[in-house]
Amino acid sequence: MKNILKILLQIFFLWVIFYLGTWVVKLLLLPIPGSVLGLIILFVLLSTGVIKEQWLSKATNPLLKHLSFFFIPIAVQLMEWSDLFMQKGYLLFLPLVVSALVALLTTGGIVQILTKVPQEKKGVISLVKHRNDCFHY
């Protein structure tokens, strides 16, 4: 019973953050979805350590485990719109390709920045990794 109560409280907390994002978007008339702002708020709270990951793990782990099931309603809805995609699908092609490339390049750039090794340590790390034949800098 205690475990179920923890899970419910954690889900309620996630809902509060989602609702906070939605409320801020409506209040400030921001051009982004409230759920996206809620995710940004959650990210900031987790990154700064205001919220610990362990405080939400009992609720989030099962949700992440079954994440693919949440895409089924979207796929069904897209199948219902197949006529629209057959007629006007070419209009979606360019924005999809451009947005995918932007996401790919942005992610790659961020990973490159975050994984840079300081110059003074680079020689030692390169020597050790070269010796193991795993990585080369």
From TrEMBL:
Compartment list: Cell membrane
Alphabetized UniProt keyword annotations: Cell membrane, Membrane, Transmembrane, Transmembrane helix
InterPro entries assigned: LrgA/CidA
Tree of life domain: Bacteria
Sequence intervals crossing the membrane: 7-25, 31-51, 63-79, 91-114
Gene Ontology CC annotation, any one: plasma membrane
Pfam families per record: LrgA
Protein topology in the membrane: Multi-pass membrane protein
PANTHER family, alphabetized: HOLIN-LIKE PROTEIN CIDA, HOLIN-LIKE PROTEIN CIDA-RELATED
Protein name: CidA/LrgA family protein
